[in-house]
């Protein structure tokens, strides 16, 4: 998944407070704000897919 398209559009839809947090996290992790947002979204999606699995469907 890549958010390369419409980077400004994606960031502009986020509240000011969250944008400030993304900016701080990006500075700490030495990456751009867009890269940090992409990491956050990828991690969120990964967590969601783990919690939506039916019981007994764990990876071996």
**How large, in whole angstroms, is the Cα Rg?**
14 Å
Morphology call: elongated
Low-pLDDT regions: none
Percent helix, as a range, is 55-70%
- The count of DSSP E runs of length 2 or more, i.e. the number of strands, is 0
Brief sketch in words of this structure:
The chain has 60 residues and is mainly alpha-helical. 63% of the residues lie in helices and 0% in strands. The protein starts with 6 loop residues before the first helix and ends in a 9-residue tail after the last helix.
Notes on the structure:
- The protein is built from three helices and no strands.
- With 60 residues, it is mainly alpha-helical.
- The protein has one domain.
- Helix 2 crosses helix 3 (33-51).
- The model has no long low-confidence stretch (mean pLDDT 79).
Record the SSE blueprint:
Blueprint: H1 7-12, H2 16-28, H3 33-51
Helix pairs in contact: 2-3
Key terms for this structure?
60 residues, mainly alpha, elongated
